[in-house]
Amino acid sequence: MTVRSLVAAATFSAVALTAQAQGLTGDVEAGKSKAEMCIGCHGIPGYQNSFPEIHKVPKISGQSGSFIASSLAAYKKGDRKHPTMRGIAASLSDQDMADLAAFYASHADKTAPETPRTASVEVAALIEKGACASCHGANFSTPIDPSYPKLGGQHADYLFVALKAYTVEGNNFVGRSNGIMAGIAKQYSPAEMRAIAKYLSTVEGELKVVPQSRFR
Questions:
Q1: Close Cβ partners of 33 (under 8 Å, ≥ 6 residues apart)
Q2: DSSP H helices in the chain
Q3: Beta bridge partners of 175
Q4: pTM higher than 0.85, yes or no?
Q5: Domains in the chain, start-ordered, CATH in brackets?
Q6: pLDDT tens-digit profile of 167-189?
Q7: Cα–Cα–Cα angle for 16, 170, 196, nearest 5°?
Q8: Termini Cα distance of the chain
Q9: Which of 119, 141, 148, 194 is disulfide-compatible with 124, CB 3.0–4.6 A?
C-alpha cells in the first residue's frame, strides 16, 4: 500500500473515531481539577521522562481536545504502550478524558503561521516521502482531523521517541499500535527520524507548557 493510500485510510479511520466520540462534552473547570495527576509531568517546563529513554514529556497545552481524548483512550486500551500513562488512563472514565481534553485545549491562545520555516532539502524530501503534511497540515499545526496531533514546536526528543515507537512490534511495554503510522515510520532510519523531529521542533506552533502549581 502506498503512503497516499495509507493517508486515505487514516482519514477514514479518524472520521469514524471522531463520530464515536460525539455526545461527550468536556468541562474545562472539571478538567482543571482532574489535571492534578498530570501536572507533575506536563506542568513543568523541560521535565524529562526516563522511559523508554530520556526525553522531554510532550507539550499538551494547545493540542486539540479530540487528540488528547483519543490519545488517553489509546493508552487505556493499550494501543499506546507506556506503563505510567496506561495506569493513569485506566483510572479515567470517558467523561474524565473529555474534561481533561477540554482543559488542555483551552490553553490555546495563538495560531501557528500558515507557512512554516523552510526545511533543508534533505528534510523536505523525508517529509514528502512520508506525506506528513497531508495529515498534519502544511504548517504542521492544522491536522486534517482534530484527533491527529499538532506537531509544530513539539520537543524534538519526544517526537523521535514517538516516531520510533510506531516501528516496535511484540513488546508489551513499548510501542504504538497504529498501522498507518507504522507503515510510514518504518520507511525511516533512526537518523532520518531525528532529522524530521529536529526540524518539526523548530517550526513555530501552538503547543506550549503551562506551568501548574503542585499545590492548589
A1: none
A2: 3-21, 28-34, 39-42, 65-77, 83-90, 94-105, 121-129, 132-136, 156-165, 179-185, 190-202
A3: 81
A4: yes
A5: 3-18+25-202 (1.10.760.10)
A6: 999 999 999 999 999 999 999 99
A7: 65
A8: 51
A9: 119
